[in-house]
Amino acid sequence: MKIMVGISGGVDSAVAALLLKRAGHELSGLFMKNWEEDDTDEHCGAAEDLKSARAVCEHLGIPLTTVNFSSEYWDRVFSYFLSEYRAGRTPNPDVLCNKEIKFRAFLEHALTRGAQRIATGHYARVAEHGGRFQLLKARDTNKDQSYFLYLLGQEALAHSLFPLGELSKPEVRRLAQQAGLPNHDREDSTGICFIGERNFKSFLARYLPAQVGEMRTLAGIVKGTHDGVMYYTIGQRQGLGIGGEGEAWYVVAKDVAQNILYVEQGEHHPALYSEALRADQLHWIGGEAPAVPCHLQAKTRYRQADQGCTLYPQALGLDIRFDAPQRAVTPGQSVVFYNGDECLGGGVIEQAISKFHHGAPRAAQL
Q1: How far apart are CA 262 and CA 366, in angstroms?
Q2: Whether 193 is catalytic
Q3: Model confidence over 129-146: pLDDT tens digits?
Q4: 97 flagged as catalytic
Q5: Same domain for 138 and 8?
Q6: What is the pLDDT at residue 183?
Q7: Structural domain tally of the chain?
Q8: Could you tell me if 256 and 280 lie in one domain?
């Protein structure tokens, strides 16, 4: 097949291209530049990434082109990112970035240039049954990235390949070294999707000015001040600046309207736990929602072990009641549903719920 591979400069996409090349496909590489707001050597490693991508493609003997999706990224991803933080929620830009950039803008670009499929270095698998496509977890559960791909639909999965889905990260590194890939020992990228590592608070402050307010306990005792509730997330420990003896302090709730950050001591303080959550903006990979109520597994954050839960219908979304209380359920993040290895879809967490009362949720969010 004619396949366009997203080449990021990292080892995962390089090995994805290596495997497809060995399988005899006709390959081309694409390097995506999606952020140029402060494109400097200090902040953005795009120049180094491109240099690495070129070296990989030269080594493999495949052509590499570049494309700039910065305006699409700003309009479809970053503007949402800012609006969610402005509302006091904690969004997950990687999820939306995959949907809007890697599996929409990139896919459209590839198809218009004659490619039959696109491929990336994601750790996930795709299976087809009777013309319907399933998104499955990667074999390496430590690297599985299906959580970040739950917004993909049938069209995207039908045209996407994940060559690393059956491999572990050590196997990928070993293949890269054995093949002599020039980036075989390059460190994995971290930070915000396509933006990179930042001092997060100072980065966000450029777009959302600080608004100082009080940090209080749930009993109303003032423990200090914060720089703006949008800079903090539920369960956060670092950066609170609360001294004194005893256990560490954690963010347990946010009151956006009053600009109050609520904190309590102890990693396992009861206020950090929720028995349920309400989700909206639902997306189902197969196109149809499961019949509810039903029992599935779910994750409320990446790398979390699957948690048993029951889904209950609501007019504008779902209530998800967990088999066991969950720590640091965070509005704005994604809850992703699984049936064994199959990723069914997910939604955005609207609020944490403290308990069910005669089948109706009672919100824990302040």
Answers
A1: 9
A2: yes
A3: 999 999 999 999 999 999
A4: yes
A5: yes
A6: 92
A7: 3
A8: no
